[in-house]
Amino acid sequence: MDKKKIKVPTPKTRKTWKIKPVTRIKPSGKIYHRRRQKDQDQEMLQKISGGKTAVSVKGGAKLRFCPNCGGSLMHKQVDGKRRLVCSHCGFVFYQNPVPAVGMIIPQEQKIILVRRAEEPFQGDWCLPAGFLELDETPQECAVREAKEETGLDIRVRELFGVYPGRDDPRARVVLIIYLTEIVGGALQAGDDASDVALFGRDALPRHIAFASHRRAIAEYFEGEDD
Ligand SMILES: [Zn+2]
């Protein structure tokens, strides 16, 4: 084939390359539009934060400046992993999973699930759960989150399990799940839960958010057989 016969049109967005979505033109003449990764990340952040708060991007790939001195961050191999390192002061931006706490709150062979009012997985059900605050113990977090999301006062009975969370777009998570019991309050959805209800093992909702929650729920009901 004569290559000269292939006509490559000039992209109209070429002149404003830096602010328009990137346009790729293949030798075939087909035009491919691609949204910039930065815009996609921004959209995701807007979506999951409701435009209210800034949250860290999974993997932190879009961090550009050193939180220590404001210098530029660059990728470097440190301790056998590719990490963001400050080009000015040498600060290494170590990225670690975020601890979260979830609760199994049983009642008459059923457990309490909450329906997510916010992204991610808005409208799906999950265990009452939330991120650990800086100034609280995991047990305190369980009590607080249960009250906020379900209206119930609970008591932590025992550690049920610890699960890796890889499917939350906000962060890599380590989910600590406690087996709890109700000591007071009244069941009422609150905070970032739009609904709260009891579910038995044979009538679980179709859409349960987060693999770690699905696994813990399955393990709980399997344990009920013993
Ligand atoms: Zn620095």
How would you explain this protein's 3D organization?
- The protein has 226 residues and is an alpha+beta fold.
- The protein has 3 domains: 21-53, no CATH class; 56-95, Single Sheet (Ubiquitin Ligase Nedd4, Chain: W); 98-224, Alpha-Beta Complex (Nucleoside Triphosphate Pyrophosphohydrolase), CATH 3.90.79.
- Helix content is 18%, strand content 35%.
- The chain is built from 3 helices and 13 strands.
- It has helices at residues 37-49, 138-150, 211-224, and strands spanning 22-25, 31-34, 73-78, 81-86, 92-93, 98-104, 106-107, 110-116, 125-126, 129-131, 152-165, 173-185, 193-200.
- The protein has a 4-stranded mixed beta sheet, with helices on both faces.
- Strand 11 (152-165) and strand 12 form a beta hairpin.
- The radius of gyration is 23 Å and the shape is extended.
- Residues 13-22 and 48-61 have low confidence and may be disordered.
- Zinc ion (ZN) binds next to loops.
> What structural category characterises the helix and strand content?
alpha+beta
Measured as a percent range, the helix fraction is 10-25%
CATH superfamily of the largest domain: Nucleoside Triphosphate Pyrophosphohydrolase
Order of helices and strands: EEHEEEEEEEEHEEEH
Overall mean pLDDT score? 83
Low-pLDDT runs of 5+ residues are: 13-22, 48-61
* Mass-distribution shape: extended
Question: Biggest sheet: strands, sense, closure?
Answer: 4 strands, mixed
Distance between the termini: 71 Å
Classify the beta-strand content into a percent band.
25-35%
Which CATH architecture of the largest domain? Alpha-Beta Complex
Give the tally of β-strands: 13
CATH class category of the largest domain: Alpha Beta
Our count of helices gives 3
Bound molecules: zinc ion
The main sheet orders its strands as: 10-6-12-11
**CATH topological fold name of the largest domain:** Nucleoside Triphosphate Pyrophosphohydrolase
Number of domains: 3
Gyration radius (Cα, Å) is 23 Å
